[in-house]
Amino acid sequence: MDIIDITAGALVGFIVGLTGVGGGSLMTPILVLGYGINPAVAVGTDLIYAAITKCTGIAFHHRHKTIDWRVVKYLLTGSVPSSLATIAYFSVFQEQQRAMEGMIMGTLSLMLILTAALVLLKNKIAARGDQAVGRNLRTHLRHKRPAITTLCGVLLGIVVTLSSVGAGAIGTAILFILHPKKSAIKIVGTDIAHAVPLTLIAGAGHMHLGSVDFGLLWGLLIGGVPAVYAGSYFGKKLSDRILRPTIALILFLMGLKLAFT
Fold first, then answer.
1. Which alpha helices (H) appear in the chain, and where do they start and end?
2. Torsion of CA 60, 63, 69, 71, to 10 degrees
3. What is the Cα–Cα distance from 29 to 113, expressed in whole angstroms?
4. pLDDT digits 0-9 by tens, 176-190
5. What gap in Å lies between CA 255 and CA 261, rounded to an integer?
6. Closest C-alpha to 151, from 76, 63, 261
7. From CA 1, how far away is CA 211, in angstroms rounded?
8. DSSP category for residue 37
9. How many structural domains compose the chain?
């Protein structure tokens, strides 16, 4: 742990508090591009970081009854086995380090670009969930919604384990589309309740593979936790119309940079 680790944690924590954009979509590319950290170590460390920092979110949302535990169960039914299967694959073929890093970089690049689009379209997705998309789902997919939610969990388990990106922005977007009647705060609470065990399990898998840097982790936590509160304070004073496109552009450029690295 050194001042650079603390600075990285503080930078990401401040942006997360300022904008609400998930730490995974920012932390991992900063560690890879800015600090030259091995992609697998960056992903594994960030997964543990995310699990720890989001635990307080579960307590808050559970206390305010803004978690749909039934939906969380469906998501975890898909995401936990797929995350474990992804880790098992890497454990068996761990000697293919270059291929593993290439898969992580490719997945991370794709997820960053997709997250950038979702950051821009977040409000439209929520609005359409209450209108045309919601009606279609209620009419045609009412009885299939649990199975589709579980399938989405399978996909999230894979991409989160590979890239540490997706449990926040993409998970929220999926819930807005599949469960349009739920309030925004309940969507966020449900997503966090799913993200914590998923990132913890995926992070434990990376720990088993030796791709978690605990010195780096403590530095990120020391810098990140207080910075989230500082970012939240200043975020109330800035226009979302300025912040959202700026963050989306940063994520998009990071995704392109990783794609051609």
1. 3-19, 23-29, 35, 39-63, 69-92, 97-129, 132-140, 145-163, 169-178, 184-208, 214-235, 240-259
2. -50
3. 12
4. 778 777 777 788 788
5. 10
6. 76
7. 16
8. -
9. 1
CA distance 92 to 172: 32
Q: How far is CA 106 from the centre of its chain?
A: 16
How many CB atoms neighbour CB 11 within 10 A? 19
pTM for the whole structure: 0.78
Alpha carbons 192 and 61: distance in angstroms, whole number: 9
Residue 90 token pair = 């890497």
What is the distance between the alpha carbons of residues 118 and 248, in angstroms, rounded to a whole number?
Answer: 8
Secondary structure class of 211 (helix, strand, coil): coil
Cα separation, 152 vs 29, in Å, equals: 24
Is residue 84 within 8 A of residue 205, CB to CB? The reply is: yes
Any idea what the Cα angle at residue 129 is, between residues 53 and 47, rounded to 5°?
A: 20
Q: What is the pLDDT of residue 194?
A: 92
Per-residue pLDDT tens for 202-237? Answer: 999 999 988 899 988 998 889 888 887 787 677 666
Q: Which domain holds residue 177?
A: 3-259
37: its two tokens? 């950290």
Question: What count of other Cβ atoms lies within 10 Å of the Cβ of residue 222?
Answer: 16
106, 256 in Cβ contact below 8 A?
Answer: no
Please return the burial class of 127, using the count of CB atoms within 10 Å of its CB with bins 0-12, 13-18 and 19+. middle
**DSSP state, residue 241:** H
164: left (phi over 0), alpha (psi -120 to 50) or beta: left
Task: Supply the pLDDT for residue 71.
Answer: 94
